[in-house]
Design brief:
Distance between the termini: 63 Å
Number of strands: 0
Radius of gyration: 21 Å
Order of helices and strands: HHH
Structural class: mainly alpha
Shape: elongated
């Protein structure tokens, strides 16, 4: 064991080691999520530019409803709370729409 565990009871050492392993896994997953979100926003930026250039509305309620339905189904398959998944997607969609509105507004002024 590493020096951080020296002098601690074996059970506490094992618990701390397992906790560190779990937290390391969580940190790796969080990093992956950040990079995936970054990729998603790069693509949605392209969608926003396309919409602005073609005078399409920033929001697409039909697409959003399809995405919510799809994500709820996926979350059930993945054993993730569908309510949480929907909240997460709605948060992302709100940010995307805001970005698209900004792109549209900047297109109007240029």
């Amino acid at each position: 064991y590493s020096p951080q565990y020296r002098g601690k009871p074996k059970m506490e050492q094992d618990t701390q080691k397992q906790l560190k392993e779990y937290r390391d896994s969580i940190d790796n997953i969080d990093a992956a999520l950040v990079f995936l979100l970054s990729e998603r926003f790069k693509i949605t930026h392209k969608v926003g530019v396309l919409k602005a250039e073609n005078t399409l509305l920033p929001a697409d309620k039909s697409r959003e409803a399809q995405q919510v339905s799809r994500l709820r189904k996926l979350s059930k398959e993945a054993d993730l709370d569908p309510e949480f998944a929907e909240k997460m997607l709605n948060f992302i969609i709100a940010e995307v729409i805001s970005n698209h509105e900004n792109l549209r507004d900047s297109k109007k002024t240029s």
